[in-house]
Design brief:
Length: about 350
């Protein structure tokens, strides 16, 4: 960059760190751990900034109230916590709560999904000394989950505000594209391009170590079976990339719609109109083929004419040979006046 165009600079470093190695280098445990840490930090950064926290797919909550027992079923699915780590539920989960005919049993409950990792395959870190055994360390970390049903809504959990606390402008949008309302507090930062996940409402990134996602709010409305407890999924934050339609599919749909309009105007079937639309193109293609064939036809006709001329001269030679074979001398071709084919009376 030219010096005359430089008015100021600002330099710094990010949070990602990629380890580098060289031949003959002595590696330690933190060097190898840095490889996994780089890929994990990269995926966290991308997921957290592109989508934010919330439910990606599945994780639907259903209830069954029978004999004063509440059974909560959570479908399989995937979610993202505020740090960008995935939380995967591979199979359907059931939680049964016995109210024990307690009159103080809460009328509102919340279903919360949290990340729960587990240490696996412990192994000694070094050779044991003569004085005692070495402490084993974790060599694998298994990603898990924990689903809880709580009385109060957690302060640090990714989700959207309760529908009762929203204004008229912050409600759901009834649009064909099923887009989220940009005025909704849980989606506002995403639409305005604010980085990070403000799950705690503090304005900073992951200050409360938010690794929980809100799935649903349960509200008791009386009765039995599946209608006793109403399930409200509006408190969860749903994140999913928006897919656009294929432009070529749009062109094909417009073409068929145009043929249907023509068919309706002519009182014909759309297929017949489509065939009529293809006639000019077929005629133009036939004319092009005809133009390409004409030079070849001219060459063939010229070759046939040459063959006929050559065949006429070759027929005179066999007749002369047959006349000599009968003992007649060859007829001299003396020049003379042309014979007249007119008869004299």
């Amino acid at each position: 960059m030219a010096t005359k165009n430089l008015f100021g600079t600002a330099v710094g470093t990010g949070t990602l760190m990629l380890p580098q190695f060289a031949p003959g280098m002595l590696l330690q445990s933190d060097d190898l751990s840095a490889l996994g840490a780089y890929s994990r930090d990269l995926s966290r950064l991308l997921f957290r900034t592109l989508f934010g926290c919330g439910v990606i797919c599945g994780l639907k909550v259903t209830t069954l109230w029978k004999c004063d027992k509440l059974t909560v079923t959570i479908d399989p699915g995937v979610a993202l916590d505020c740090c960008g780590d995935p939380i995967q539920v591979t199979t359907a989960q059931q939680i049964t709560i016995d109210s024990q005919c307690d009159s103080t049993f809460p009328k509102k409950l919340y279903v919360v999904l949290c990340e729960k990792n587990k240490c696996c395959a412990p192994r000694p870190a070094m050779c044991a000394s003569d004085n005692g055994d070495s402490t084993p360390v974790c060599t694998r970390e298994k990603y898990g989950f924990e689903i809880t049903v709580v009385r109060e809504r957690p302060d640090c959990a990714c989700g959207c505000p309760n529908p009762d606390d929203l204004t008229a402008d912050e409600g759901l949008l009834h649009s064909k594209c099923q887009c989220a309302n940009p005025k909704l507090p849980c989606y506002k930062d995403h639409y305005t391009g604010v980085c990070g996940c403000d799950c705690c409402g503090s304005g900073t990134d992951c200050t409360c170590n938010c690794n929980c996602v809100l799935l649903a709010r349960l509200h008791y409305q009386g009765g039995q079976d599946t209608t006793a407890w109403a399930v409200d999924h509006r408190v969860r934050r749903f994140v999913r990339p928006v897919l656009i339609q294929d432009p070529l599919a749009d062109q094909a749909a417009a073409f068929h719609a145009k043929n249907e309009e023509k068919a309706a105007a002519l009182g014909q079937e759309p297929a017949a109109v489509a065939q009529l639309a293809e006639v000019p193109a077929a005629l133009a293609q036939a004319a092009q083929v005809r133009a390409e064939v004409r030079p070849a036809e001219a060459r063939v006709a010229e070759a046939l004419a040459a063959d006929r001329r050559a065949g006429g001269h070759a027929a005179e030679a066999p007749a002369a040979e047959a006349h000599e074979a009968k003992g007649h001398p060859a007829r001299p071709h003396a020049p003379g006046p042309a014979r007249s084919h007119k008869r004299t009376r």
